[in-house]
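hey
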C-alpha cells in the first residue's frame, strides 16, 4: 500500500510518499524563505506560497518515488493545528486529488504526525513518554499505544521553538532561529548565563521568562560584548531548555514508569538536546527514540505515516475541514 502525505500547516510545503513496509519513496520539502525578512511567518504570504508550489512539489515527489498518482492508495492531509489559510490550501488540493482520482483520503493531526514519524523504522517500546517540542507546541505526552495519548504537561506561555526563534531575533540572527542558535552555540560556554528552571518541580513548562532574562542581559552589554557573548548566550539557552525539559520528564518517568522516551517536533533536530535526552534515558534505563534530523521539522512523510495508521485503525473522516487549534485527541 502506498500513502501520499500532504503537509501545509505552516511554512513548509511538503509531499511525502511512504510504502506500508516503512520504505520512504520520497519526501520533498519546500521551506518558504520569504518569511526570513520578517523574522517570523506571515500567514497570508504562507498561504500564497503553498498555493504557488504545492502542485510542483507533488510532481517532484511522484517523480522521485518513480510512481504515478494512480499508484497511490491513500492520501493523508494535515487538517490542524496550523494557520487556517495554509491548512486550507493543502486540504483543498488533497480533496481535489482524492475526488478526481478516486483515492481515499484521511485527515491527519499534525501533532500526531510528529509523534508517529518515530514509528516508521523503529519498534518503539510502549508505553512511551513523548516530548513534543515544536514552533507552536511543547507537550509531554503519555502514549499507551498508537491513537492513545494523554497530555501530562504543556507550556503555559511560549513553545520551546518559539523561544529559540525569539531569542535568535534578540541576538540579531535569522529565522527560523533554532538552527541559527545551534550553529553559533558550538563555540559557546553553556555556563555563561545561569537561567532558571521555570515552575521547578511542577508539571508545566514556561519559557517566556527565559526570553526576558536574555533580553535584559543582552540589552545591557556593550557593542563589543554583544559580539563576543552571542555564542555563550546561545549555548546557555540550549542548556536551559534541556534542563527545563528534563526537570518535567524526570518527574513523569518516576510517576509513570514508561519503557521509552520519544523526542519529536522541529526542536528535536537540536543535537545538544538529543544528546542530553539520550544521556537521561541511559541513566534511567529506558529506550530513547528521536527521528532522523530531516524528519524532525514539518514534512509529508510524518503525515503519510499517520494517515496510514489511522486508516488501518478505521478512523475515517467524512468531512475534512481545517481546525487551526486542533488538539491531540486524548483517550
Ligand atoms: O515542527 P516544526 O517544523 O513546526 C511546527 O510544527 O511548529 O518546528 C519548527 C520549530 C522552529 O521554532 C525552529 O526554530 C525549531 O523548530 N527548530 C530548532 C532546530 N531546527 C528547527 N530548534 C532548535 N534547534 C534546531 N536545530
Ligand atoms: Zn510541526
Amino acid at each position: 500500500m502506498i500513502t501520499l502525505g500532504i503537509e501545509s500547516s505552516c511554512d513548509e510545503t511538503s509531499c511525502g510518499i511512504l510504502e506500508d513496509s516503512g520504505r520512504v519513496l520520497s519526501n520533498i520539502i519546500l521551506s518558504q524563505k520569504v518569511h526570513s525578512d520578517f523574522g517570523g511567518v506571515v500567514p497570508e504570504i504562507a498561504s500564497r506560497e503553498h498555493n504557488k508550489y504545492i502542485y510542483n512539489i507533488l510532481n517532484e515527489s511522484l517523480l522521485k518515488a518513480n510512481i504515478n498518482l494512480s499508484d497511490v492508495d491513500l492520501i493523508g492531509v494535515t487538517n490542524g493545528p496550523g494557520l487556517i489559510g495554509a491548512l486550507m490550501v493543502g486540504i483543498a488540493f488533497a480533496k481535489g486529488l482524492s475526488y478526481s482520482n478516486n483515492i481515499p483520503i484521511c485527515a491527519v493531526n499534525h501533532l500526531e504526525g510528529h509523534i508517529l514519524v518515530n514509528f516508521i523504522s523503529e519498534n518503539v517500546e510502549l508505553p512511551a513518554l513523548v516530548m513534543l517540542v515544536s514552533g507552536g507546541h511543547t507537550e509531554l505526552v503519555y502514549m499507551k499505544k498508537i491513537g492513545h495519548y494523554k497530555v501530562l504537561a504543556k507550556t503555559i506561555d511560549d513553545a520551546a521553538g518559539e523561544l529559540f526563534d525569539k531569542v535568535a531575533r534578540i541576538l540579531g540572527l535569522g529565522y527560523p532561529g533554532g538552527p541559527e542558535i545551534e550553529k553559533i552555540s558550538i563555540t559557546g560556554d553553556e555556563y555563561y548565563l545561569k537561567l532558571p528552571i521555570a515552575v521547578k518541580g511542577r508539571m508545566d513548562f514556561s519559557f517566556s521568562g527565559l526570553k526576558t532574562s536574555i533580553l535584559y542581559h543582552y540589552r545591557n552589554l556593550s557593542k563589543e560584548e554583544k559580539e563576543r557573548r552571542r555564542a555563550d548566550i546561545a549555548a546557555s539557552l540550549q542548556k536551559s531548555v534541556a534542563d527545563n525539559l528534563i526537570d518535567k520528564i524526570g518527574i513523569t518517568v518516576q510517576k509513570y514508569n514508561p519503557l521509552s522516551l520519544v523526542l519529536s517536533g522541529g526542536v528535536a533536530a537540536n543535537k545538544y538536546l538529543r544528546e542530553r535526552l539520550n544521556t537521561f534515558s541511559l541513566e534511567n534505563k529506558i529506550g530513547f527514540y528521536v527521528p532522523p534530523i530531516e524528519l524532525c521539522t514539518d514534512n509529508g512523510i510524518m503525515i503519510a505515516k499517520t494517515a496510514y495508521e489511522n486508516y488501518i485503525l478505521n478512523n475515517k473522516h467524512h468531512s475534512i475541514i481545517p481546525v487551526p487549534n486542533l488538539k491531540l485527541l486524548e483517550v
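The chain has a mean pLDDT of 96. The pocket of KG4 (ligand 1) is lined by residues 10, 134-136, 161, 164-165, 176-179, 182, 265-267, 269-270, 297-298 (CB under 6 Å).
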